TrEMBL record:
Molecular function per GO: gamma-glutamyl-gamma-aminobutyrate hydrolase activity; glycosyltransferase activity
Record's protein name: Putative glutamine amidotransferasec
Coiled coil: none
Organism annotation: Desulfosporosinus acididurans
EC number: 2.4.2.-
Pfam family name, one: Peptidase_C26
Domain of life the protein comes from: Bacteria
Record-level GO BP terms: polyamine catabolic process
Keywords from the named record: Glutamine amidotransferase, Glycosyltransferase, Transferase
GO cellular component: cytosol
Length: 240
């Protein structure tokens, strides 16, 4: 029995050299979880079966940022501008989405996470915004990741609006992909001024299930709204 919720954060992968190769998450993920009242654990991707065993230890799940989702998972070939992909990670995280929905485990998906979630539920992605969307904003910001650089408009009557209590919110932006065709059971609840979908909610579960294209974990220490988003996610895990 533990007092603070255990938050599983999906790991990315880096290889510096043959001595340093393995699981990676940016420190802002685990720092923000601690700041907002949770205990972070990092989930390496091994196989869907092993991941399910890890998830049984978790009260909530963060799908973290990272590589592009392999377009084969949404029935497309790679296009110009597609970045590095790791299909093994995609497969594991798709199984995490299914597990979270089946067991109503609260889930916060961030950046790649919103894209992965959309693909897992039957949607498609814009493989590269700059080469696909004319008059797009600068979604790969040149500013530091803890700086907010563009606005999003938040839909009223959404859980995200309930959290923020504001319909225009400043966000950071570190993505070159975005949702194209929205999955049937997802609702777009925030958009940038160029029409890019910046947040979605799953409409068929009562547990916390929000996905954002920006990086709240990197804003949480300085931005009260983003701290509230992560705090409410972590607080929601104690209701189950
Ligand atoms: Mn953006």
């Amino acid at each position: 029995m533990h007092n603070k919720p255990i938050i599983g954060i999906t790991g990315a992968y880096v290889k510096h050299n043959s001595y340093m190769e393995g699981v990676y998450v940016h420190q802002d993920y685990h720092k923000s979880v601690i700041l907002c009242g949770g205990i972070p654990i990092i989930l390496p991707y091994v196989s869907p079966e092993i991941t399910i065993e890890m998830l049984k230890l978790c009260d909530g799940i963060i799908l973290s940022g990272g590589e592009d989702v392999d377009p084969k998972f949404y029935g497309q070939d790679p296009r110009i501008g597609l970045g590095h992909t790791i299909p093994e990670r995609d497969q594991v995280e798709i199984s995490i989405v299914n597990y979270a929905l089946k067991h109503q485990v609260p889930l916060l998906a961030i950046c790649r996470g919103v894209q992965l979630l959309n693909v897992a539920l039957g949607g498609t992605l814009i493989q590269d915004i700059p080469s696909t969307v004319s008059k797009a904003l600068q979604h790969s910001q040149t500013a530091e990741r803890n700086r907010d650089t563009h606005w999003v408009t938040v839909e009223k009557n959404s859980k995200l609006y309930e959290i923020f209590q504001e319909d225009r919110v400043r966000v950071n932006s570190l993505h070159h992909q975005a949702i194209d065709v929205l999955a049937p059971d997802l609702r777009a609840v925030a958009k940038a001024s160029d029409g890019i979908i910046e947040a979605v909610e799953y409409t068929k579960v009562s547990s916390f299930f929000i996905a954002v294209q920006w990086h709240p974990e990197s804003l949480a220490s300085t931005n009260p709204l983003m701290r509230r988003l992560i705090s409410q996610f972590i607080a929601s895990t104690q209701k189950i």
